[in-house]
Amino acid sequence: MAKDWPLWEVFVRGAHGAGHRHVGSLHAPDAEMALKNARDVYTRRNEGVSIWVVPSAAITASAPGDKGPLFDPANSKVYRHPTFYDIPDDVGHM
Amino acid sequence: MAPLFELCLRMGDSTLILGQRLSEWCGHAPVLEEDIALANVALDLIGQTQMWLGLAGEVEGQGRDADALAFRRDAGAFRNLLLVERPNGDFGHTIMRQFLFDAWHLPMLRALAGSSEPRVAAIAQKAEREVAYHLERSAGLVIRLGDGTGESRARMQAALDALWPWAGEMFAGDGVDAALAAGEIAPDPARLRPAWDGTVDAVLAEATLARPAGSFFHRGGRAGRHTEHLGHLLAEMQFLQRAYPGAAW
Predict the structure, then answer these.
(1) What is the number of helices (H) and of strands (E) in chain A?
(2) B37 closest CB neighbour out of A1, A27, A40
(3) Biggest CA pair distance of chain B
(4) Residues of chain A contacting B37 with CB distance shorter than 8 Å
(5) What is the pTM of this model?
(6) Most buried of A13, A65, A70, B40 (most Cβ within 10 A)?
(7) Are B127 and B52 a contacting pair, CB within 8 Å?
């Protein structure tokens, strides 16, 4: 049996936030205790109305070394941004 | 002494002493998450103490506020349950003490929320939500540690066996309780026993722990007769106000 508790990623939705935001990680023996620990560690100052916990091991992350191939090609594609349209004055701020 | 004053001391002293005991863990708990959680519970309890002892001073009417009652009374004037002055022991011991207390504290506050004394009802209603979480947390840990490894199970059973004789005091009423019950200010302590038994039995069963058979229990805390441990705790807790009376931020 593993001696250390598994790691969990914590997402909290604030009172005025539309979505859950990643706030950090913590250790807990299981999901239910992870929720309780998240409540104590990350919402002590009334930050949240909803908490998600996800086993850190369940997250598949892109490798920092792949940054170039993954993201650089988007740099030179200005036409992917909607900046070439004339917006009628009536529309106002978009 | 007026029964209402005694009730406020009994509630406020138990939350104060347990809050102080839990604070001893600050920076020492086995994992960071538990360290923060125990400190949160301690702060909840000390916040409740401010309300109970604040009301006690108001009822007494001799100009003593919550701080005066907390920091300038000797052990014999404290009315806390003996259970909460038990030393922390290991982490399992601390969690078991917390669970046995929480399982009583919640039904007690629920009963007090319907008190005929509106100031008591207001405090109880405010504290009840905090304590519902305390119980959820301590029960969850008792279950996981009891139904955990051989080592954790043995420690939890040892803690339960050691603390059991200190739990019965919660349900032993006296003349003050009879007066409070007659005025519908507070429940007869014995009335809380079925709720406590129900919670404790269900959690111990899930934790695979054996409920001790003994029915003997120590009593005296609620009448001001304490174990030697309270004096040591107060010496530390009250040091500053004793050495520098009236010192303020």
Answers:
(1) 2, 3
(2) A40
(3) 54
(4) 36-37, 40-41
(5) 0.89
(6) B40
(7) no
Average pLDDT over residues B9-35: 96
Under the banding of pLDDT at 50, 70 and 90, the label for residue B113 is: very high
Q: Write the pLDDT tens digit of every residue in A6-26.
A: 999 999 998 887 799 999 999
Sheet holding A21-27, edge to edge: A21-27, A7-13, A50-55
Are B232 and B96 a contacting pair, CB within 8 Å?
no
Residue identified by tokens 């022991």 is B89
From CA B21, how far away is CA B120, in angstroms rounded? Answer: 25
For residue A1, pLDDT beyond 50: no
Give A55's strand partners: A8
Rounded CA separation B7/A75 (Å) = 71
pLDDT digits (tens, 9 = 90+) for A40-63: 999 988 888 899 999 999 999 998
Chain B residues whose beta carbon lies within 8 Å of the beta carbon of residue A37? 33-34, 37
DSSP A88: P
Are the C-beta atoms of residues B85 and B230 closer than 8 Å to each other? yes
